[in-house]
Amino acid sequence: MRYKRILIWEVNWIGDVLFSTPFIKAIRDKFPKAHIAVITVPRCKEILDVNPNVDEVLVYDEKNIHRNIIDKWRIIHKLRLRHFDVVFLLHRSLTRTIITYLSGIKQRIGYSYRKRDIFLTHRIKNPIASQHRIEYFLGLARKVGADVAFKGLEFYSTKEDISKMEQFLTMHKVKNGDKVIAVNPGGNWNSKRWPVKKFAGLCDRMIKELGVKVIVTGAEKDVDIYLEIQDMMDEKLISACGKTTLRQLGALFSKCDIVISADSGPMHVALAVGAKVISLFGPTSPAITGPYGNGEYVVIQKDVGCRIPCYNLKCMDLRCMDSIEVDDVIQEAKRMARKAKSVDRK
């Protein structure tokens, strides 16, 4: 089996794309001389742009430039011109599978789903038991005899990204020797978020009891969450909300002693760059989308009698997240802070 040109069709979310990086490494190690391209949605492109195991990143934007039939024929034409030998379909989409079929890619490898099976040349049986996403993706690598021993997430920032975050820390008077904890209060589901009042209580206590500096991270849309937390507090926070790209966020997390976050893409970015991570879980399963592989992390999740995972985006109860107390988190933060080595921020 000698593939010279390989396409990997990625999944749609930051965390899931990070979960796929051990798979990408396994394919690169198996086919070291092959040209490996990945195709992903715009928000995830930045994760893979500087990954050394990837030669080319293509973008598929079904909500905008590839929305209609004519636009889809354009991406089909683009793929045809690249003459890929094989595509690994990490995404379960029927549409994406048909696109690869029409692109003339002779070998199409993916998990078996009834509607798309006819378009796959190599159908892999879905695992009976639930498993972590990393293991799920690695199942495709096993199909071609790749070594799947490596389970760690891979995330890369450029020298410019790192320099920009060093400047950010200097501007906010963060020095070598300071203890820094980042908190990431946002998330793509409201039901996965920890209450802002508890974040405020936690940040106040960490600053007073641990003598740390606390940075709030997030996108531009999370600025209001930061302001709400700050308004409830006695102590002063540092805000990075809306001030970093995704790669810069990874560089910032690498300069932090601890990162505290609910189940989200940034949580996995933090783990990928080697930060110590405290993960707050409610309606989702740590066994499926939790921290995994290398690194130091702890998952805090309470048994409140609900079926987990529930994936109920419209839940109004939210007791799974509300049941996590500030004391639960600060005790873990204290434990990690005692063990933390000094982080070089220059």
Short description:
This protein has helices spanning 14-19, 21-30, 45-48, 69-82, 94-102, 133-143, 159-171, 196-210, 223-231, 246-254, 265-272, 286-289, 319-322, 326-339, and strands at 5-9, 35-40, 56-59, 86-89, 107-111, 122-124, 180-184, 213-216, 238-239, 258-262, 276-280, 297-300.
Name the descriptors.
single chain; alpha/beta; Rossmann fold; 15% strand; globular
CATH fold-level assignment of the largest domain:
Rossmann fold
Q: Spatial order of the strands in the main sheet?
A: 3-2-1-4-5-6
As for the number of domains, it is 2
Instruction: Average the pLDDT over all residues and give the rounded result.
Output: 92
Give start-end ranges of low-pLDDT stretches. none
CATH class term of the largest domain: Alpha Beta
The geometry reads as globular
Biggest sheet statistics: 6 strands, parallel
CATH superfamily of the largest domain: Glycogen Phosphorylase B
Helix content: 25-40%
Q: From the coordinates shown, what is the CATH architecture of the largest domain?
A: 3-Layer(aba) Sandwich
N- to C-terminal separation? 46 Å
Measured by DSSP, the beta-strand proportion falls in 15-25%
Strand count: 12
Structural category: alpha/beta
What sequence of helices (H) and strands (E) makes up the elements?
EHHEHEHEHEEHHEHEHEHEHEHEHH
Q: Whole-number radius of gyration?
A: 21 Å
Distinct helical segment count: 14
